[in-house]
Design goal:
mainly beta; Methylamine Dehydrogenase, Chain H; 4-stranded antiparallel β-sheet; 1 helix; 5% helix
């Protein structure tokens, strides 16, 4: 009998420990001198964060790419925030991706002329070589680099004509078109894993209704439509891990006017991840090799809150997993690394700041 009692106690303790949600410490990444807003857009396995820093804008969130003086940054715990500047002639930049070697990619303009100010060009940055212009497809005037893998292969997009945007990749700084889904007008490669598998979105129309489909590209299959939730007409694939599991969003026949965060397994089967309690929409932006997905969704009062989804706990509001009375409202989580660290942005002291969440052991 004593053994059985001890066994039951042990099981209860184990279940209680398992039920405790992961909690996080929070680090304010700050802003560049003269700015008051920032957003963390990606991070690597060492916890180095890239993003952009700018000033307040009418949209109410940072890094719109239209504020003169918005600059890409690179942040580490030991070195703080470094301004990456812009390409020659430019005054706007943003860093979107970083790999474990510290190579950074993003976008910058190269002119302040009113006619060409928002013609952005993809860049790559290293600590030894600084920022270089990655160029664009022939016939286009703009490009953007979104992510870079451990081999230095870059995923992004480029205008191919005045009106058509193709998914693109760069190998050894040379651009290649990945094409587009049939009848698409805008296709962007948003993430790449270490197996050179690329995911993104192909947009068919912006109005009267926005419609797009998520895609996956491999060298063997080319660019393939991976579909939507049942009877949906819109999906986007934002991130892919090394196992080929994809995070993104989709609508469905039962909620055509909203998105739910979704994941596609390696066979392209899609799963609805739901919403936060009281919410009506959610989006998955980042995924790590453990299958943790981060993004944001709304809550009962329609406020946007950063979220994390795990196979065991489902979708949770990250605001419930940081220290109480921290002064933060976490709005969006953009990326999660192998250690479970998360970056994004939230409001603190009346302004949006980039943050780094670190799991509490």
């Amino acid at each position: 009998m004593l053994k059985r009692v001890l066994f039951n106690v042990a099981m209860l303790l184990a279940l209680s420990a398992g039920a405790l949600a992961q909690t996080y410490t929070i680090t304010d990444i700050g802003v560049l001198k003269g700015d008051n807003e920032s957003s963390g857009l990606w991070l690597n396995s060492s916890g180095a964060v890239v993003g952009c820093s700018d000033t307040s804008n009418s949209e109410g969130y940072p890094c719109t790419g239209t504020n003169a003086g918005q600059h890409a940054f690179y942040w580490t715990k030991s070195g703080g925030m470094k301004d990456l500047g812009t390409l020659p002639g430019g005054n706007i930049s943003g860093a979107i991706g970083i790999n474990n070697a510290g190579q950074v990619v993003g976008y910058s303009n190269t002119s302040t002329s009113l006619l060409t100010e928002y013609n952005f060009i993809a860049f790559a940055w290293t600590s030894g070589g600084g920022m270089i212009n990655l160029g664009k497809l022939a016939g286009g005037d703009s490009s953007c680099a979104f992510e870079i893998n451990s081999s230095g292969v870059i995923a992004g997009d480029s205008f191919a004509t005045e009106t058509l945007v193709y998914a693109a990749s760069w190998t050894n700084d040379k651009i290649k078109s990945l094409g587009t889904l049939p009848n698409s007008i805008f296709t962007a490669a948003l993430d790449i894993n270490d197996n050179d598998e690329i995911v993104g979105e192909s947009v068919f129309a912006y109005s009267p209704t926005f419609t797009s489909h998520a895609f996956k590209w491999t060298a063997a299959t080319g660019l393939k439509d991976i579909g939507t939730l049942p009877r949906g007409d819109t999906s986007i694939a934002n991130a892919i891990n090394s196992s080929g599991v994809i995070a993104g969003q989709s609508n469905a026949g039962s909620f055509l006017t909203a998105w739910h965060a979704v994941k596609w397994n390696a066979s392209n089967g899609i799963e609805d991840l739901g919403t936060l309690v009281g919410g009506t929409y959610s989006i998955g932006f980042g995924i790590n090799n453990s299958g943790e997905i981060v993004g944001y969704g709304n809550i009962g009062d329609n406020a946007a809150h950063a979220m994390v989804w795990t196979p065991n706990e489902g979708m949770q509001d990250l605001n419930n997993l940081i220290p109480a009375n921290s002064g933060w409202v976490l709005i969006n989580a953009n990326a999660v690394n192998a250690s479970g660290q998360i970056t994004g942005y939230g409001t603190k002291g009346g302004h949006n700041h980039a943050f780094l969440l670190t799991p509490v052991d």
